[in-house]
Amino acid sequence: MRIMTGPKTALPLLSALLFGAFVVSAPAAAQCRLCSTSETQRDEGATTGPIRIEVEARLDFDQLILLDSRGQGTARLNPDGSTVTTGSLGAMTGRTMVGSVTIRGEPGRLVRIDLPASIALYGRTGGNLTLTQLKSDLNTSPRLDSQGLLQFRFGGELQIEGDMEGDYRGDVPITVDYL
Amino acid sequence: MTGPPCHRSDNGTCGDLYMTKFAKIAAVAAAVLTTTPAFAAPVSVTGAPPAASARIVKPLTLTASGSLNFGTIVMNSVSSNQSVNLAANGTLTCGAQLVCAATGTVPTYNVAGTNGQVVSIIKNTSTLTGSNGGTLTLTPVGAATVTLTNSGAPGTDFAIGGSLVIGAATVDGLYTGTVNVQVDYN
Known about the structure:
The complex is a heterodimer of chains A (about 180) and B (about 190).
Chain A (H helix, E strand, L loop, with lengths): L6 H19 L25 E7 L1 E7 L6 E6 L5 E5 L11 E6 L6 E4 L3 E6 L4 E9 L12 E13 L4 E6 L3 E4 L1
Antiparallel strand pairs in A: 1-5, 3-4, 3-9, 5-9, 6-11, 7-8, 7-10, 8-9
Chain B lengths: L12 H22 L10 E2 L4 E7 L3 E5 L8 E2 L6 E5 L5 E3 L3 E2 L8 E5 L5 E7 L1 E5 L4 E8 L2 E3 L8 E11 L8 E2 L3 E6 L1
Antiparallel strand pairs in B: 3-8, 4-7, 5-6, 5-13, 8-13, 9-12, 9-15, 10-11, 10-14, 11-13
């Protein structure tokens, strides 16, 4: 007869506990059909399809008039289309456009959408501007609708310093992932 | 288990053996636990990123020199509306029941702003008031746009002409007023 002590005794016990934990975690079959939830629920663990980003409209500040070539200023275009300028910039025109993006993916899925903190807009003839505070009109838990669509708009704030006349352009890298 | 007996007082082999087995069980448990899909794996995202754009421009400045002058126009038994057109190049043409000079003078405008930008020339009608009463409507004529060829000074020039309509009821006299021209980036 062998008397097991210490770790030798704990080994089978741990195995049994571990096995028991997995057995317990298995869902019991519903006994009450009226009480049971729908059997057609989507399997959260199923393979996920690709997400597609479609650009409906670019973020366009149109023309900004620099009243003082030696000054500084900011131009803010909010997701709701409202505009604010400060410093040496004149009022924005009525032709500004907020960025608009449509996400296509699996219907009903929660997604995480990340906008960059800032990006650079590069001039055709050199130089660059900084676009900061990119914000969207998404709620805190964005979800694709029943058609697998989610549309949102975004804006940002342009920082201008000194004589920077010219045309500027940059890409806004948006990352999307299922939660 | 067929190995040698092991007691608390043993050192070496037995302890190592159990530690190995415990580690294997822990590894299995970890493997099972990690298969629980708390979050789905990242999926591919396709589509081009949206762009952001802005055009920074200097404010436009518009200055005028000279005046729009049709000269003297003789009403020769005017019975219906007659047009007087003074082109931006100074050429003057009149209706058949009018007599006028071949040329007039036109104002020259200078617009300065950001090089390469297209500027719209906005022309609005204005009213000329006669010295003996009555009014005439002045309609400016000229180019619809101008492209700036430099940044700031010296700017780009353009001329503006005008047209009038003189009818049978037009009172003779000296008519004066202002030419209403504005510019804006296109």
